[in-house]
Amino acid sequence: MGYLFMFSGGIVCPWDQVSFFLFIVFVVYTMLPFSMREAIIASVLTSASHTIVLTVCLSTTADHMEAVVWQILANVIIFICGNVAGVYHKHLMELALKQTYQDTCNCIKSPIKLEFEKRQQVNKYFLISSESVKVRLE
């Protein structure tokens, strides 16, 4: 879709659709249910494909190659920063999810443990009372 927007406008510029592809990178890390590895692969492929297509397209049509090279380099730096921010966000979210899961498990285990201890205490009480009855009968 980004390529459709990029090539349907007429003149292709080195900064075309960088924000759209950066948005895709953030969505992969924040919204889609990918593992960290899958998210990194998808984001790097997205960034690399945009950079390669834009470089190939502009290398045949650009008049001032030095400016294009600097802009492509700036795009690569933007994509690297976006990927680093996405990895950091995904890592923090995975840690928070793991902690929430542990807290939920502890909340479920706590009443079960209390019920088990209560049963043990009741059984111990009945055992002591039955032994006292036995002692009295003897």
Q: Would you give an account of this structure?
A:
It contains four helices and no strands. The chain is mainly alpha-helical. It has one domain. Helix 2 packs antiparallel against helix 3, helix 2 packs parallel to helix 4 and helix 3 packs antiparallel against helix 4.
Key attributes of the depicted protein:
138 residues, 86% helix, rod-shaped, single chain, mainly alpha, 4 helices
The helix fraction, in percent, is: over 70%
In N-to-C order, the SSE pattern is HHHH
Total strands: 0
How much β-strand is present in the residues?
Answer: under 5%
* Class from helix and strand fractions: mainly alpha
- Total DSSP helices: 4
Spatial gap, N to C terminus? 92 Å
The main β sheet shows up as:
none
Q: What coarse outline follows from CA principal-axis ratios?
A: rod-shaped
The number of domains: 1
Which value, in Å, is the CA radius of gyration?
A: 31 Å
* Rounded average pLDDT: 85
Low-confidence stretches: none
In short:
The chain is mostly helical.
Layout: helices, strands, pairs:
Elements: H1 2-7, H2 18-30, H3 36-61, H4 65-137
Helix pairs in contact: 2-3, 2-4, 3-4
InterPro entries: AC_N
Keywords: Lyase, Membrane, Nucleotide-binding, Transmembrane, Transmembrane helix
Transmembrane segments: 6-32, 39-62, 68-88
